Amino acid sequence: MSGNDSSRGSVTVIIPTLNGAFWLEDVFTMLAAQTLCPAEVLVVDSGSTDGTIAIARRYGARIVEIPREDFDHGATRSMAARMATTEILVFMTQDAVPADENALARLVAPLGKNRVAASYGRQLPRRDATVFGRHLRLFNYPAESHVFCFESRQRHGFKTIFISNSFAAYQRDVLLAQGCFDEHLLFGEDTLAVAKMLGNGYCVAYVSEAMVYHSHDYSIVQDCKRYFDIGAFHACQQEHLAAYGGPGGTGRAYVLSLLTMLIQDRKLHLLFEAILRVAGKFISYQLGKRYAWLPTSLARRLSMNSDWWTREA
After folding, report:
1. Would you say the C-alpha torsion 180, 197, 164, 31 has a positive or negative sign?
2. What's the alpha-carbon Rg for the chain, to the nearest Å?
3. What pLDDT, in 10s, does the model give residues 41-83?
4. Whole-number Å distance between alpha carbons of 69 and 226
5. Cα distances (Å, whole numbers) of residue 284 to 73, 105, 255, 301
6. Which of 39, 189, 228, 239 places its Cα 20 to 30 Å from the Cα of 8?
């Protein structure tokens, strides 16, 4: 990787990939333009059949290939964390494109200051995002930066442990000391890692000035499947998450924000779809929290990650 700064930073960028050729050219182009040049980009590929590996190789990435069935949200990222040799780890997804040349430098700037051991950046909606995809990103990633510590839970509740490994940085020594990311999770390895960090006296920084373009235009069915998984994750990890309350307050704020946005943008024709989406998310989340009562075959159909239920059965 080459960058604007002739010196290389003590940062490893880790990107799990699977058939990501559609986005990776843009991702690597912007990584090469960063003012903070990564010491290395480590790509962990789980069986791509498109041009993913060729693109990564052309940009000088270090490539590790694993069988598709071996991919695990926590274990795969933990493996990569242990393989890295730098002080700071930046995790990205294959479809998160840095918005400017300062994204990495701004993301890692708070680490090591005032007990901050992790940070995450702002995810902007893609230019062609639907109104629902755009709203979700603007709601979850506001323009104001913030630092959250364990004591922040009293005011911010579940928002205290919000983070996304689509664009997040960690102090490697702190992450390794707590065993990296948990394995065999449906998803949410990042949230669980931050919950443990905060419980151990560290803090997490939301850096709104560090930006990537990253959004999804989920259908109503896909939204429901994702929220089923969120509910199941919260139920599985209740022991670690209970100290931070529940997402109820955030959910109410989300509904009000969505309806306000539709009214302000004069998209009243989408109100019925919005109601369907909100109702579907709520019902799916509640079902996910009660996944233990459901037949595995039904949970598999309700989930966005059906393979996980097959492995766990």
Report:
1. negative
2. 19
3. 999 999 999 999 999 999 999 999 999 999 999 999 999 999 9
4. 21
5. 22, 38, 16, 12
6. 189
- What dotted CATH number matches 11-213? 3.90.550.10
Domain boundaries, the chain: 11-213, 220-312
CA dihedral (173, 246, 74, 224) positive or negative: negative
141 touches 122 (CB < 8 A): yes
Q: Supply 304's token pair.
A: 């966005």
- The two tokens of residue 284 are 């799916």
Contact 202/260 with Cβ under 8 angstroms?
A: no
| Closest listed residue to residue 196, CA positions, set 214, 169, 177, 215 | 177
What is the identity of the amino acid at 179? G
Residue 233 CA: distances (Å) to CA of 160, 175, 226, 295, 305 = 17, 21, 11, 17, 12
Nearest to 285, CA basis, from 227, 225, 221: 227
Stretch (H or E) spanning 121:
strand 116-124
- For the cut 70, the answer to whether the pLDDT of residue 313 exceeds it is no
* Backbone torsions φ then ψ of 165, nearest 5 degrees: -75, 10
Q: What is the pLDDT of residues 143-161, one digit of tens each?
A: 999 999 999 998 888 899 9
In three state form, how does the secondary structure of 39-103 look? Answer: CEEEEEECCCCCCHHHHHHHCCCEEEECCHHHCCHHHHHHHHHHHCCCCEEEEECCCCEECCCCH
DSSP at 240:
H
Q: Residue 64 pairs with which residues in a beta bridge?
A: 44
